[in-house]
Amino acid sequence: MSDFDLDYLVIGAGSGGVASARRAASYGAKVAIVESVRVGGTCVLRGCVPKKLLVYGTHFAEEFADAVGYGWTVGTPTLDWAKLIAAKNRELDRLNGIYIKMLNDSKVAIVEGRARFVDRSRVDVGGRVMSARHILVATGGRPELPDIPGIEHAITSDEALDLPRLPRRAVVVGGGYIAVEFAGIFAAAGVAVTEIIRGPQILRGFDREVAMHLAGEMKKHGIAIRPSTKVVAIERAGESFIVVTDDGTRIEADVVMYATGRTPNTAGLDLDRIGVHLNKRGAIVVDERQQTTASGVYAIGDVTDRINLTPVAIAEGRALAETLFNDNPLTVDHRDVPTAVFSQPPVGTVGLTEEAARAIGEVDVYKAAFRPMKHTLSGRDERTLMKLVVDRASGRVRGCHMVGADAPEIIQGLAIAVKAGLTKADFDRTIAIHPTAAEEFVLMREPVKPPIAQAAQ
């Protein structure tokens, strides 16, 4: 008879935790999953899914405008924000039900409540103590807010997804993908948007040219970007707010949204009691097999603060289940992970940025920038950017980057090529699909001049 109540206890029913629990149960493990809110996690309930639904919903404004250039007579379109939010919430309820059904069908027990460790093999959930041979922490992260005067007036992405009414003016603080995406959502819905960033450009860590190109396109959409600016206070002004910056500027807004980072959800788990080491950001430190510094305790996903993407958490969770319950030791390769920013227009990227590649060795960069075919008739002033970063010695394509319509869909396919180590010659041998934007990735022939050579002319 087992000395444990369970073979596997998962804390956190987000995408990664659910995937790991179900995979373990499929191999005959006795599994339970603990969740204090709703099954589905950040991605399904407070992140990727609802955010993209709002992107879809607000982007119709451009479709209506573009239709005129194709001969359509379109009246004055209006957005019922409350109706959009209600439709989004119905879809989230449906997905929550699907996740619950998947767990039930997999024979994974759902335990409601907040978990805390008693010791390395026992967890207390609301007074109920359960023991498990293996325990996984998959509690994700949450938005963080700075300690400045008036910060209680600000909202985060969590609240932005459920605003009861659309503001006339919004200030979005932050330059990462969440800030950029919500700035686009608000602007497309007709809100006057100011985005404030502490650094010199949006999307720190992305290819510099990609970030600059997107910033230019966002400005065309009416978004005012204030770089190298710090918010020092938020003041109440009747029904609105005043955002005060470090240069003394005062910006009035109806909504102030912060998207300046996320904090791993480790508080209240009593991890120090069992010797789980946290880094200076409060994230759980794990090795390549997701093992923490406490034997038998593992962690995946955003709570480890490595690559905070849902598919990465799912891959880590499944690999761990394979290792523990199927005698199939697996690790996740965190190199060349594709990602997307669902800005307007969107960004897709995989592999090395131009800056990172040049820091390693000599590279050739191929680039195409053009007006999409759709807008030759719509008249919209929007340009697409595509880049290939190629290792000069081997010819291997080390990075693919795009800003423009369908960028995430296109880059997903190119991610296979980058992961497989294909060369620029392989791209050149590929026949283009015409007329498409994607064909440009196999039609680029001449590398652009390197920065030094360009500066010398």
Which helices and strands appear, and what pairs or packs with what?
Layout: E1 6-11, H1 15-26, E2 31-35, H2 41-46, H3 48-67, H4 81-105, E3 109-112, E4 115-119, E5 122-125, E6 128-137, E7 141-143, H5 157-160, E8 169-173, H6 177-188, E9 192-196, H7 208-220, E10 224-226, E11 231-237, E12 240-245, E13 250-253, E14 255-258, E15 262-264, E16 297-299, H8 310-325, E17 339-341, E18 347-351, H9 354-360, E19 363-370, H10 374-378, E20 384-391, E21 397-403, H11 407-419, H12 424-429, H13 451-456
Parallel strand pairs: 1-2, 1-6, 2-3, 6-16, 8-9, 8-14, 9-10
Antiparallel strand pairs: 4-5, 5-6, 7-15, 11-12, 12-13, 17-18, 18-21, 19-20, 20-21
Walk me through what this model shows.
With 457 residues, the chain is an alpha/beta fold. It has 3 domains: 201 residues, FAD/NAD(P)-binding domain (3-Layer(bba) Sandwich), CATH 3.50.50.60; 110 residues, 3-Layer(bba) Sandwich (FAD/NAD(P)-binding domain); 118 residues, FAD/NAD-linked reductase, C-terminal dimerisation domain (Enolase-like, domain 1). The protein is built from 13 helices and 21 strands. Strands 1, 2, 3, 4, 5, 6 and 16 form a 7-stranded mixed β-sheet that branches. A hairpin with a 5-residue loop joins strand 20 and strand 21. Helix 3 packs across helix 4. It starts with 5 loop residues before the first strand and ends with a helix. The C terminus is likely disordered.
